[in-house]
Amino acid sequence: MKKTIKKVYKISATVDQVWQALVDQKVIDEWGGGPSKMDSNVGTDFELWNGDINGENIEVVSKSKLVQEWFGGDWPKPSIVTFTLKKDNSDTILELEQIDVPDEEFEDIKSGWDDYYMGPMKQMLEKKH
Q: For labeling, which of 5, 17, 28, 61 is most exposed (least CB within 10 Å)?
């Protein structure tokens, strides 16, 4: 059975800054997701961590919502990752949902969001803010 990960992050940065950290490959490379290939267009095939994570942008609502098909390793079917951004005074609330997470990798992926993706991104953004 496939599992779902849901997480919420409060980031002391503007929605614009958080959005750029998700879709601008130069910014992604700053917080550790690189070398990457990414932009904010629907249909873009992206790569993170030199291709260890790859997939496609399937829905983009600028500065609000990014939905991606994710593949890691030799997954037969993609996992769907949704990032939703909301302004909270001068901060940003980022809601993350990942569905169809492979059972055998669930715990590693769940902790990986904090350790390798959102944690480093949040830290980089908050230093700049």
A: 61
The size of the chain, in residues, is: 129
Question: Tokens representing 76?
Answer: 């037969």
Other residues' Cβ atoms within 10 Å of the Cβ of residue 22: 19
Asked whether the beta carbons of 38 and 48 are under 8 A apart, the reply is yes
Q: Which of 56, 57, 51 is nearest to 72 (CA)?
A: 51
Cα separation of 22 and 64, whole Å? 11
pTM of the model: 0.95
- For the record, the structure tokens of 4 come out as 């779902």
Give the confidence band of 25 by pLDDT, cuts at 50, 70, 90.
very high
In this predicted model, what pLDDT tens digit does every residue of 43-56 receive, in sequence order?
999 999 999 999 99
Q: What percent of the chain has pLDDT over 90?
A: 88
- To the nearest 10 degrees (0 to 180), the angle between helices 118-128 and 15-23 is 130
